[in-house]
User: Which sequence fits this backbone?
């Protein structure tokens, strides 16, 4: 070249087109599984639903099951977090609101459907197990921090998580009315008051 520098291919930007295509395919997979269930999911529909060429699907995920598993894990990441503002009541109420919102998304419906059938492939069962483990671990970290700071008496974090999240699933899945902050505040208030009242004082 005239400036003496050798020709080089243009630098690939982080992400780029392939990252966008992969994101489109994963989002389409979640919506299709939410619509048809894992058993009814048709690999051949993904490209059309995502608006990409079918070779993009086959090249990135030669195996149908690998695509389903990655979609489940990818879209579960945000549902496993619980903030720590120092106010356990507020943080748990915010968690319930986020959980309710997540259950109303295509991914939330996918999880609900996937958890129902008893017969899932080992790979899908493992992915669902990882998702649930992430949520349990996040709850344990937040509850342990609250116990350490004296916000809560010693408590089984798994039990606490089940007690506060059960009503959310019931309200959202029944679809009778929206889940509100008032619902979240009431649930957390009743459960925490019960824990404090039934824990023997030192």
Assistant:
């Amino acid at each position: 070249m005239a400036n003496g520098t050798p020709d080089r291919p243009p630098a690939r930007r982080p992400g780029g087109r392939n990252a966008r295509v992969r994101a489109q395919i994963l989002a389409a997979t979640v919506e299709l599984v939410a619509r048809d269930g894992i058993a009814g999911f048709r690999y051949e529909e993904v490209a059309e639903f995502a608006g990409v060429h079918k070779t993009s699907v086959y090249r990135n995920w030669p195996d149908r099951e690998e695509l389903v598993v990655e979609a489940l894990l990818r879209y579960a990441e945000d549902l496993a977090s619980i903030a720590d503002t120092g106010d356990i009541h507020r943080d748990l109420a915010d968690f319930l609101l986020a959980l309710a919102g997540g259950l109303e998304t295509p991914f939330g419906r996918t999880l609900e459907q996937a958890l129902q059938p008893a017969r899932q492939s080992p790979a899908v069962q493992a992915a669902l197990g990882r998702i649930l483990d992430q949520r349990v671990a996040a709850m344990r970290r937040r509850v342990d921090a609250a116990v350490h700071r004296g916000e809560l008496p010693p408590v089984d974090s798994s039990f606490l998580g089940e007690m506060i999240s059960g009503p959310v699933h019931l309200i959202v899945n029944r679809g009778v009315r929206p889940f509100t902050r008032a619902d979240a505040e009431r649930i957390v208030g009743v459960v925490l008051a019960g824990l404090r009242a039934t824990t023997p004082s030192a």
